[in-house]
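This section describes the prediction task in plain terms. A model, or a person checking by hand, is given the sequence of a single protein chain and must write out its three-dimensional structure as a string of tokens. No templates, partner chains or ligands are provided. The sample shown here is typical of the held-out split.
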Amino acid sequence: MIGGATVRRDDVGRFCLNDLHRAAGGAKRHQPSDWQRLKQTEELVAELANSGDSRFYPVHSVAGRNGGSYVARELVYAYAMWISPSFHLQVIRAYDQLVAGTPAPDPMQALSDPATLRALLLTFSERAEILEARIQYQEPQVRALSRLSRADGAFNITTAAKMLQVQPRQLFAWLAEHEWIYRRAGSKNWLAYQTRLHQGVLTHKASVQRREGEPDRVHEQVLVTAKGLSRLAESIDRDQMTWAQADAAMALQLAKEVA
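The expected answer:
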């Protein structure tokens, strides 16, 4: 327990980084994914992997609604230090209490303490403000995705990448990795998987290329539909990529143009 929040552990003792983020207040600037991308964090993970318990890796990601990133104790300390000295001290004391086996305080006794009540109310108030700010930030994105999912039209992958605020090469790589697009052997052209065509998230645009003295060639280009763009924005957001306010506004404008 840290700050009134429960921090889960997996079957080998790693701690849930997402729970620690919530215990620290859940601020966007303290997202675990941002910390995990730091070079210093990557070096610490590599050092732990080389010198720690060989039976398990210091970082493990669990998929699903109740999943998250589970990390070794040393990484918990490093993450807490990155957030703030006060939270770092909270984590150290909580772990010391866990190791010492000190029983948790009686909740009813804690609630009878005016100082404890004030601290709890302040914590919940701060979390409510964070949630409200997050909803206000995401509202343009939600409206944009709703409009785009019902609009007609399709966009090439480069245009879709700009709308999603990612590099085109990143989006091409993501689509290929998640089996949206593929290349035939010996071909440079991308094609959509048949399942994605059936889902209506991708489509093909055929054009005839004519060269003098050569037979006509049919060139197919993969396009992302409005429904596909909406699906991608949701998926990429789960991968911790961001959608800026300006991009949401641009998406709304584009939705009006293609409606």
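For orientation: The first strand starts at residue 15 and ends at 16.
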